[in-house]
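ok, trying the design again with the full structure, not the truncated one.
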């Protein structure tokens, strides 16, 4: 049902609440925030499924074989593998687009502004890995050192957004830059250290296909279809090579053009001419369904609006919502469902893997990020973002201990064929992420309140 016309516009129910202009950064924050709420709900559902009478159904669902076949060729994997190797490639594609944007025009484009979050992120990756390794210096558990290195940007931003009225916007920007660098580190670790054997022929084909994507970029190809087709073949080649197939997402993202077809001034000129034609055509027949010329002008405006944007911007906008609201929740649903046996929970939590992950995510992230930030500020190599205090950076360093999605993903790679160790790792990830989120939010609530009081006194 459509409401009556209001100032020349027809509104469907609820439509007015969405009718406002927001910046790409605001859109990014909004979707990450609402995604975090959905992830909490999905995690609860996964835990209920794994610890109820539906556990057999849940396990059967995860291991349901799904095949794609064309003639004699085909791929068969479990649903769990399709999600982790297939859908998560799209997640990493969006991560790659975010990385590229931040490097070109975002917080990582200005080296002076970027120095603090980059160095803090590096400290927040290296120290957690060393702490985990200290708890697990030998044996099968050693391979899990990459688990506590990454930050779950959705959860961390979701919590920080709840405190948006208390913390400066620059603190949110700092966390975004920090998490983006974290993601880059995680991608690098996965590519280099979580590849067991490499089939060189398949890897060479994947690299050649990446070269094709880069040539598309140089030739000025701005249609989505060629990039999509080649990226799918590259994903398959990487999967056959032994390198984790999700890295095809990041590789594809960096090949997507970041230069628009139209200069904004040219777009402005074209829009002015089209609107003059629109005005004349509109006077002949105001019903756009009857007025073919009017519809043609509108389509030209739509085409121009696309060409004044970069393809990378358009794809990030298109894919951010399905990734945030569908792909990551599905990943969590199939990976966060761990059986909780309270009788043996004490043994699980005191296992070196769980202890290493917990200490790394909570203590390692806190000391690594806050310590490096303090050192750079003391040496005057970097400066705090405007309106931000070091105590607030410390609060963000606690929120960075929310590993969750990325940590679970790395754990799946590290302990792929070791169910018992994987269960211990996931338990440690979830409980330490919960602790980091609660303590970090309380810390920021207190120090930000104190900061506001001092400003009011002044």
């Amino acid at each position: 049902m459509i409401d009556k016309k209001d100032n020349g516009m027809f509104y469907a129910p609820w439509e007015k609440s969405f009718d406002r202009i927001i910046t790409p950064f605001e859109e990014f924050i909004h979707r990450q925030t609402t995604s975090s709420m959905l992830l909490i709900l999905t995690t609860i559902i996964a835990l209920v499924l794994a610890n109820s009478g539906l556990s057999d159904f849940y396990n059967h669902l995860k291991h349901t074989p799904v095949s794609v076949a064309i003639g004699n060729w085909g791929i068969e994997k479990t649903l769990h593998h399709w999600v982790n190797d297939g859908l998560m490639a799209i997640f990493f594609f969006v991560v790659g687009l975010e990385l590229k944007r931040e490097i070109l025009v975002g917080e990582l484009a200005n080296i002076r502004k970027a120095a603090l979050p980059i160095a803090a992120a590096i400290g927040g990756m290296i120290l957690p890995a060393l702490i985990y390794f200290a708890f697990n210096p030998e044996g099968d558990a050693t391979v899990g050192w990459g688990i506590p290195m990454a930050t779950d940007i959705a959860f961390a931003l979701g919590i920080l957004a709840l405190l948006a009225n208390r913390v400066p916007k620059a603190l949110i920007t700092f966390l975004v830059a920090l998490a983006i660098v974290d993601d880059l580190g995680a991608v690098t670790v996965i590519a280099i250290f979580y590849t067991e054997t490499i089939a060189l022929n398949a890897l060479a084909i994947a690299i050649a296909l990446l070269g094709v994507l880069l040539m598309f970029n140089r030739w000025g190809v701005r249609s989505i279809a060629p990039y999509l087709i080649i990226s799918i073949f590259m994903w398959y080649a990487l999967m056959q090579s032994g390198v984790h197939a999700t890295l095809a997402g990041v590789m594809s993202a960096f090949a997507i053009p970041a230069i628009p077809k139209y200069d904004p001034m040219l777009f402005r000129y074209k829009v002015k001419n089209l609107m003059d034609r629109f005005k004349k055509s509109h006077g002949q027949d105001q019903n756009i369904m009857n007025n073919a010329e009017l519809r043609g002008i509108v389509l030209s405006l739509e085409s121009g609006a696309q060409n004044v944007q970069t393809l990378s911007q358009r794809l990030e906008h298109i894919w951010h919502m399905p990734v945030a609201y569908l792909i990551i929740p599905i990943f969590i649903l199939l990976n966060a469902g761990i059986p909780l046996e309270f009788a043996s929970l004490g043994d699980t939590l005191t296992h070196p893997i769980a202890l290493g992950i917990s200490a790394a995510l909570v203590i390692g992230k806190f000391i690594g990020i806050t310590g490096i930030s303090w050192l750079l500020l003391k040496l005057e190599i970097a400066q705090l973002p405007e309106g931000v205090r070091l105590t607030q950076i410390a609060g963000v360093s606690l929120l960075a201990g929310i590993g969750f999605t990325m940590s679970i993903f790395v754990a799946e790679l590290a302990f792929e064929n070791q169910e018992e160790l994987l269960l211990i790792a996931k338990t440690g990830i979830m409980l330490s992420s919960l602790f980091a989120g609660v303590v970090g939010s309380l810390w920021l609530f207190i120090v930000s309140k104190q900061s506001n009081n001092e400003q009011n006194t002044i």
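Keeping the full-length input from now on. Residues 11-21, 454-458 have pLDDT under 50 and may be disordered.
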